[in-house]
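Teaching note: in complex prediction, the entire set of molecules is handled at once rather than each chain in isolation. The prompt given to students was simply: 'Predict the structure of this complex.' The entities are:
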Amino acid sequence: MSTPLLFADIDEPGLNTLEIYQRRGGYEALKKALQMAPEDVLKELETSGLRGRGGAGFAMGKKVSFLPKGSMDKYLVCNADESEPGTFKDRELMQKNPHMLLEGIVIASYAASANRSFIYIRGEYVLQAEMLDAALREARDARYIGDQILGSEHSLSLVVHRGAGAYICGEETGLLDSLEGKRGNPRLKPPFPANQGLYQGPTLINNVETLSTVPAIMRMGGEEYAKLGVQTSTGTKLVSISGQVRRPGNYEIELGIPSREIIFDLAGGPLEGREIKCWFPGGSSAPVLTPDDLDVPYDFDSLAKAGSMLGSGAIIVVDDSTPIVELAIKLAKFYRHESCGKCTPCREGTNWTVKMLERIDSGEATPMDLDIMASVQEHIIGNCLCVLGDAMAMPIGSMIAKFRPEFEAHIEAARARSGLGPAAAAAEQVLAAQGALGA
Amino acid sequence: MDKEIPRYAHGSRVPGWDTPADLDKDPATVPGVGGSPSVEVPAELRAEIEASMALYPETRSATLPALEAAQRLHGWCSPEAIEQVACVMRLTPADLAAVATFYDMLETEPVGRHSIYVCTNISCSLCGADALLAAVQEAAGEAEDGDAEFNVRAFECLGACDIAPMASVDGAYVGPLSIEDVPRLLEDLRTGRQVLPDKQLAKRPCADPGANV
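The expected output is the structure of the full assembly:
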């Protein structure tokens, strides 16, 4: 990629200060936007084809356009609750270039004519929240945020709101409840947040990376931005790559390059003497892919066609030293812990999936349990208010489908280790009970 | 966290494991409102909570910052801490307890002074987080006053998989950690120094070779 948009000079000392940010042309995009009508700013966002970088990949311009017109209180919420396992791109942006995010928020709020904004940052990101607070003070003093920004009609207030540790608060309606001071339980949709969100008012919710891209779009023009990447996935994307690779970290790529290039050329491939067993292309909620899928272009539609998703843009590489059952247990336990408990399929499904996986590991399962487990996953998908349950069901389902022989071998080995104990004993008990009834 | 549910050998639950609150008792009301006794709130805590409440269109939004402030003062969200927040925010203690029990970073039991959250999610566990957690737990358990000094917990993904396996130590991210780092980590915490300065995330450059050109 020729020039990075989001990571340009990211490690320049002092980039987090207003002075250096402005010297690099910061807040020029905001000045340009404020000269335009809000509808024209919105049009640029729509032309850019920018899709949300938080996970769902919904067109950002369209999301803005869903907000009702009129002079009611409207809100903009920046989702900085980055909790998807494997994802750490927003952390880098907020820590090293907080003003770029603030500038994006002001421009987006102008396009959406929202006058109150919030950054909901996960409570664990202490350093990043401090960086944002410091940047916010500078931006307020320079009149980039506040009443009548730079002499225009547009006013915006901004509050950095710290969460307190809950994965579910990254789900947009769970986030809204949490921001209102309640437990972070997702809400029934519709109504969608664009109509009834925060405090029941129209609300635009976008991810940190999405909003941080907005200044670049205003600078280049939507049409120019849309030339980057591929047709349905425009622009550049930050990819967090982690797990069993040589050079884990964040990389900015142009969407549509082969996944192999990211994993091997940028991240250095698997560790010495190891082979890739499977990889998550978009955080732990994405169905796993195998080494056969390494040439799939890294963009929204190609990954969907390959049976997975781009999600939050987090690649987790798993090599052949890790048993798939161990990986599945780890994953399922996470979702069990984070399920808010509001919907039965998710609350019970995550719990029973963990129990069944543990049974496999302890030698109490039979291959039939795999079918039961797969059917539990099918009953979770699409049956809850939010997609937390689906986020466990999809990868677990894909693991059972793609690594069934290994699951079966694990079952047999564990049963042999435990001397066929519990399962055989239980069967004997049943037989004995039936015999007693007959007599 | 998971609580063990007591069961009989045949599998059914031992009665009383989920005994509800005393339903005959009057529900706790907002302290200091409608004749219920007011509680003493430290002036600084009151000022901090009121400043948070002023930031939002609806004051209830300040629940998390307020509980966080109370936890900082009391060490955990004790019943006393919750009553004080309830008094300032004009909410019932139950409203706040419901929130405090939902979030991982709000403690509803007394804990050690320094928090050590060891990430044990996928990326970190692929890089040896489980052994790291066991080592930290063991070292903290052997230490004199270990329980009062350290709050060691396994935590879900902390968003720093590039430095796996890692931990958040009193809010500061450090990694990649090896088991040999553990004694120094605890020692740094005890003496009030910056923890493992060479492993702080704050000092780590971006991995992308295409950036910074």
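Point out the following to students. The mean pLDDT of chain B is 91. Chain B touches chain A through 53 residues (CB under 8 Å).
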